[in-house]
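New here. Invent one.

***
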Amino acid sequence: MLHLACALVALGLFGVCVALARDTYPTRTAALVSLGVAFVSAIGALVLLGTLAYPVHVALARRGRGGSRSPTPVPARRVALVALLLTALVAGASAIRVTETRPTPDVGPASLPAEATDAYAAALDRTAARDHRVTVRHAREGGALVSTTTVDRTDRRIRLTVDQGARRPAVGYADSGVVYGVAGFSPGLFALGERDVHDSRGAYALPGYWSLRDERVITDGFPYGLPDPRTGAWTTVDETADTRTVALTDGRAVFDALQDADADDATVRSGRVRMRLDTERGVVLGGSARLNATIGEHDLVRNLTYDAASGPAVDARRPDALGARSLGEWTWDVFAY
């Protein structure tokens, strides 16, 4: 009887979690809710055992058929163990359900708007919503700098690579259980451990994917991303059966599209951006940008080439330097499923 009651309580908690869960992207709030469900479920089970279930069980165990005393009541430890196991199963299943993901949310039809500015913005949003990789090559004196940002939404992983040619590429990585090599990332109070890898950079047991998964990652890339679509008026300069080329030619608009920070003392001598769009899939394919400007007394020259790929073939591989997952990473991965 007691086992049946515990099972009914477990099923009830699971049903509540399923009813309240929403099919959305994983968020920090969702994980905290799942952790709260686990904690409240455990406390509730213990309170139920202490105030109601166990006393009733003992009373029933003392009475056999016809009022005779039962010789072997069930030990309290066994009852508590069964309840805690059920609670753990419910909490785990609830956590997975509450934080369930939809890696590629619907962003509207694949067809692009007729207006060039809206077309580029729509293609950028669709690219960002899928698994995607953006590679930016910055040609400069002394060698090119190549930045690659890979967002694997299907597996909730982000990989960042900056290659300056003269030394080993710098690699940053984040998924639902770890963040590693990402500059300016504060672990806060949620980290479940920290360890140094062979290159003396810290790896934190923390779902860093949440902090980096935003669509703006594609424009605020590390250190470069695709041009911002809303700094000026774009025009269509070329169109074929399956591609469309849009351009931004206003100097100040180009400066704002390429630079993250505002600069009131900037003087733009020349600038242009051209981006190629896939009209069938509604995504960005690549492009180029040129900028010649001055900020205060410093010259700013940008000579950029973009390459974008999106779809199921994109994969953000976990760096070999991280090795096997730690216990803290596995713990976060359960709640950030």
The first strand starts at residue 132 and ends at 138.
